[in-house]
Write a structure and sequence with these properties.
Rossmann fold; 5 strands; globular
Length: 196
Amino acid sequence: MPTKRPSGLRPATAVGICGTPGTGKKTVAPLVGRLLGLRAVSLNSLAPGGAEEVDPADLRRAFLAAGQREAVVYGHLLPHVLRRGEARLVAVLRCEPSVLRKRLEARGYPAAKVRENVEAELIGVVLDECVRAFGEAAVREYDTTDASPGRVAEAVARDASAPARRVGQWIDWTLGYGSPTTFRSLLEGKGPAAPT
């Protein structure tokens, strides 16, 4: 017997934007929304009382209650809030880890949070979560390291308007960090910051 879809969302109407903190979600999502004529909805803004720690099930309920069926939905918890088939495209924003480290430090993140997020980006934690949640066919990566937010937004909007088959390999930042010493330097913020 077929399962009933949860109320609040029609299949494949949202455009999801996800990524490790510091990859550009908050900047790119509103631009994508303008290009597509959709509202940009931050999952963080739906967290009860702006809580930093939130139960994804509570966040999903808040999202469904907000009735944002057609929107650009963004936040690092996206794969824990939307379900497979609820987004026509999930854009995972990526950033070279040494550049991400600088961005997070400039924001004043504590050293432990910088390390945690740099490590997550290095090994592709958010990408993996999105592929598992939405399936490979719905997920695309966009490298924000040197690209302007406008250029990234245009690429996401183009792919959301006429989804094409993903071509090529997923980004693997680890290939640029060839030794354990280079990995440690990146994670500890010491020595060479860029891949060798």
